[in-house]
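With this grant's support, we have settled on a layout for protein records. A representative record follows, to show the layout.
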Amino acid sequence: MTFWEYLGSRHQQLLADAYQHASAVFQCMVMATVIGVLIGVVTYRSEWAGNLATTTTSTILTVPSLAMIGLLIPVVGLGVPPTMIALTLYGLLPIVRNAIVGLRGVDPSLVDAATGIGMSRGMRLVRVELPLAWPPILTGIRVSTQMLMGIAAIAAYASGPGLGNEIFRGIASLSSKNALNQVLAGTLGIIVLALLFDAAYVLIGRLTIPRGIRA
């Protein structure tokens, strides 16, 4: 069976796996973005706090994904929970780091001007600092998403959702005639999803970042 014949015979299952893969990555990115930006907001004013946040999230990223999921299985079981927790943790570093860098890079004169017209600290953060820090934060989100697309494939080890199941099935049956087709279908599916997500982020950037800031 050729690769194209395999795709034709398995397209429904592949589409279902691709949807589950994209959904898991999207949900984890939303959680990682919220948590990462909050950490950045809390720590960017302090040098040691910012370094601690960056070092902690960097340490998490050094843990092998297979080991991370394996450690989570006895705690939360198989399936979706260990996948979601692991992906969210892995997605934090680029967002936290870029949020801190972006917030620290805001021109102090703009913050002083906002203070001068009577804005509270919360209003300055929401209406001045975060919008100006949004471009590097979005870059961090893009980097995290690309990482999680690949890491999410390991979720199949814990019976998690996504295209990793296709890859693992192929690896587990290397002697079968469709083993290469299974691995190739899962791998190419992840690449296509990564490109689609990145294109969506480019569009979001064009819609949410003023042209002057982009320049």
In short: The radius of gyration is 20 Å. The chain has a mean pLDDT of 89. DSSP finds ten helices and no strands in the chain.
